[in-house]
Design brief:
Blueprint lengths: L1 H19 L14 H4 L3 H29 L3 E4 L7 H8 L7 H23 L5 H24 L22 H17 L20 H14 L3 H14 L23 E5 L15 H5 L6 E3 L1 H6 L7 E4 L1 H11 L10 E3 H7 L1 E3 L5 E2 L4 E3 L24 E5 H14 L3 H14 L10 H11 L6 H8 L2 H5 L5 E6 L2 E7 L16 H6 L10
Antiparallel strand pairs: 1-4, 2-9, 3-6, 5-8, 7-10, 10-11
Helix pairs in contact: 3-4, 3-5, 3-6, 5-6, 6-7, 6-8, 7-8, 8-9, 8-14, 9-14, 14-15, 14-16
Length: 520
């Protein structure tokens, strides 16, 4: 009986396939060719550039969390010890070459480079639109190589589509990587294909890479190489262009949706407040760094403003708070729009639940990145991952602080003083009358807290060993009774080998031609 049923089912399947076979004979529409046939029209090259941006957006999470976890800006935090073991390893310097987020960032950067190379190598820039796309692709290829040289140092240069016999490249030198960065950015700038904003309030042009953004990135590359005259020239071009200004509205919204593409926005990956496309906007980024609301009670103003269902990662360290107080006092305008004490949180309407322990928190809360209901496409309290905050990469504030450093190191203290005092004026602080490198270091730490600059700065300044040497020795938790230090490590802190990240183990296993960085 079972056999008869089986044969009957088979006959039905054959009949179905036979009856539908003619429906599968669908005529081809559009370009069905290969890679070499695709990059022919403006539309096709624009689509390729969109693919590059999708890759940049996908890799942003790893880019942001790896760099901020390695810095002294924050405790990783989360729901409890082990909530994100990979980020804890980064934050406490207990990681090895098999660390998964380092691997993901590394491979993601090369995916972005590959997508850029497709555009650069396959496009005949015979229209203005194609020229712009190629220039933009060169910018992003340079951006990725910048991250590779400043984080890994000896990662391979990939400045073209690799042939089969090139698939396993060996290490590059920092000099080769820097040369690639400089060449791509210089060519993007000199192409005259990148747009410039019409004025500081132009919110349309800024959604693209502009000429001034490319100049700022080239200035940053020069500064990291201690080419101070060249760096100062680039940054001063951007400042003197008048195309960007510091945002003078509510500083508490400086990294929120309200300031998407504002006058201070230099480089940010676009998000959209479109409920019909909300799931394509999904990002774990802001879900992760909102307060651990399942450990908290929200009342009053907090309950009306804060989006709940967030995870409580990246909590401010006391030493950062103390640095703010030393510079601007405990009532400082910028401080109170960046970090709040637990007492201030209680005044706002936030208290710990009875018996709760807030892991990775020593009594200070991230106010700068607080999860606001107004940032949400949909206020999904069960899984708060539908915000439309643009993914920030560079603000004009960073350009001014880089310019201050470059001008000071180039012997132009007067120009450096102008740059840093613009930052201090917006922070409602008295202007400096003289400026030192330590002033710039402090101002940069406070202004760009948790904005992916601190770790690479500490390494290039030679300060990392001193500042990060004991990081991860003990980990705090906040309770109703105060702060306890219940978690201790025997292996922790920045070491000599951490001057460069390890070449990922997976890469070493697949590529016999690449050598590991020193001491890994």
């Amino acid at each position: 009986m079972k056999k008869n049923i089986f044969y009957s089912l088979m006959l039905l399947l054959v009949a179905f396939v036979s009856g539908c076979s003619d429906r599968l004979d669908i005529p081809k529409n559009g370009n069905m060719g290969g890679m070499d046939d695709f990059y022919q029209t403006d539309k096709e090259v624009d689509e390729a550039l969109a693919t590059l941006y999708v890759g940049l957006k996908s890799n942003y999470y790893n880019w942001w969390f790896v760099k901020n976890s390695l810095s002294d800006d924050a405790w990783v935090g989360g729901g409890s010890r082990g909530d994100n073991g990979e980020m804890e390893k980064l934050n406490e310097y207990r990681f090895g070459a098999d660390e998964s987020m380092i691997q993901a960032l590394y491979s993601g950067l090369y995916t972005n480079i590959y997508n850029a190379n497709l555009i650069i190598d396959k496009t005949d820039p015979n229209t203005n639109e194609k020229k712009r796309c190629v220039a933009e692709a060169k910018f992003w290829r340079a951006f990725c190589h910048f991250e590779l040289v400043t984080l890994w140092g000896t990662a391979p240069v990939v400045d073209h589509l690799l042939l089969p016999n090139e698939y396993r490249p060996g290490n590059s030198t920092p000099e080769q990587l820097w040369a690639c960065v400089e060449k791509d950015l210089s060519e993007a700038i000199s192409s005259d294909a990148l747009p410039s904003k019409t004025d500081a309030n132009d919110q349309a042009t800024t959604i693209r890479v502009t000429k001034e953004v490319a100049e700022a990135m080239l200035g940053k590359a020069y500064l990291f190489q201690k080419k101070y005259a060249e760096a100062a020239d680039m940054f001063n071009r951007v400042v003197n262009s008048g195309k960007y200004q510091l945002y003078q509205g509510d500083y508490g919204k400086i990294v929120h949706a309200a300031t998407n593409n504002c006058c201070e926005s230099m480089l940010e990956i676009q998000m959209r407040n479109d409920p019909s496309q909300q799931w394509s906007q999904l990002t774990m980024q802001f879900l992760m760094i909102g307060w651990r609301t399942d450990h908290l009670i929200l009342t009053g103003k907090a309950a009306s403003e804060i989006a709940t269902g967030t995870y409580g990662f990246m909590n401010p360290r006391k030493e950062v708070y103390d640095a703010f107080v030393a510079d601007e006092g405990k009532d400082g305008y910028r401080l109170n729009n960046t970090i709040r004490t637990y007492q201030q949180m209680q005044d706002y309407g936030v208290t710990l639940q009875a018996g709760a322990s807030y892991y990775g928190n020593e009594g200070y809360f991230n106010w700068k990145n607080r999860a606001l209901k107004e940032d949400c496409i949909t206020d999904a309290s069960y899984f708060q991952a539908l915000q439309y905050i643009d993914l920030r990469i560079m603000r004009y504030a960073e350009v001014l602080l880089l310019a201050a450093e470059a001008n000071l190191q180039n012997g132009n203290a007067e120009e450096a003083l102008k740059d840093i005092n613009l930052i201090r004026s917006r922070a409602r602080l008295a202007p400096l009358t003289t400026v030192t490198l330590d002033n710039i270091k402090t101002e940069k730490r406070l202004e760009l807290w948790l904005e992916c600059t601190r770790y690479q700065d500490l390494v290039r300044w030679g300060d990392a060993m001193k500042v990060l040497g004991k990081q991860g020795e003990q980990i705090p938790s906040l309770t109703a009774k105060g702060v306890s230090w219940d978690f201790k490590n025997t292996d922790y802190g920045f070491k000599e080998k951490n001057m460069l990240l390890p070449i990922p183990l997976k890469e070493k296993e697949l590529n016999p031609n690449i050598k590991q960085n020193v001491n890994w």
